[in-house]
Amino acid sequence: MDMNVDDCDARVFQYFQAFTEIVVDNGLQALISGGDVTKSGYKARMKARCSILVENIQPTMLREKIEHQIKHERRDCKTDDAALFDLILEHARVQQRFHSQ
Question: What does the pLDDT look like over 32-78, one tens digit per residue?
């Protein structure tokens, strides 16, 4: 994530957008793109996609919080990138408020 962006929502959106661009630019859609739900391997692709997104979250404290939430409370975020986006955004906003005080 680009920590130079002050707006928390924009930072998370840019993170997901940059990830999608990297996937497309490198021709990795067949491996980690969401695509059609009815195609075989959809869940495995989404799991890989979400796993990579979580592994690369910065700052580390945010990543650890997201990993904890996914492991214990939000298991849906393992295979649903929209739910993962909402979870990251929620916790990034909390951290933003805490650090801006």
Answer: 877 777 778 889 999 999 999 999 999 999 999 999 999 999 999 99
Domain total of the chain: 1
Within a domain: residue 13?
Answer: yes
Domain assignment of residue 1, yes or no: no
Structural domain boundaries, residue 52: 8-100
Dump pLDDT digits (tens) for 75-90. 999 999 999 999 999 9
Nearest to 45 by CA among 32, 55, 36, 56: 32
SS3 content of the chain, % helix, strand, coil (to 5): 70, 0, 30
On whether residue 2 sits in a domain, the answer given is no
Its sign, for the CA torsion 98, 50, 77, 55, is negative
Question: Of 48, 89, 97, whose CA–CA distance to 69 is shortest?
Answer: 89
Task: Tell me what pLDDT residue 8 has.
Answer: 86
